[in-house]
Amino acid sequence: MWDTLQVTHEGKSDVKRSRKHTLIREYELLRMNHGESISDFQKRFTHLINHLTDLSRKFEEEELNLKVL
User: Fold this and answer.
1) Total-model pTM
2) Which Pfam families match (predicted)?
3) Which whole-number Å values give the CA distances from 48 to 1, 2, 45, 53, 69, in the listed order?
């Protein structure tokens, strides 16, 4: 029983780590698209940051401000 729980948890950890790396890469490449409104960009940015925060990624306020600028 314990082995099954451990394997299941490790699998979830791998998926979580992979998702976190994918989102970090998306964050690094984040740019405002041609013709995208500021409001739409802000929604996309906030959505991405919220997902990364849920995955335990920490951000300094200054870093987020510079990213938007």
Assistant:
1) 0.75
2) Retrotran_gag_2
3) 36, 35, 5, 9, 16
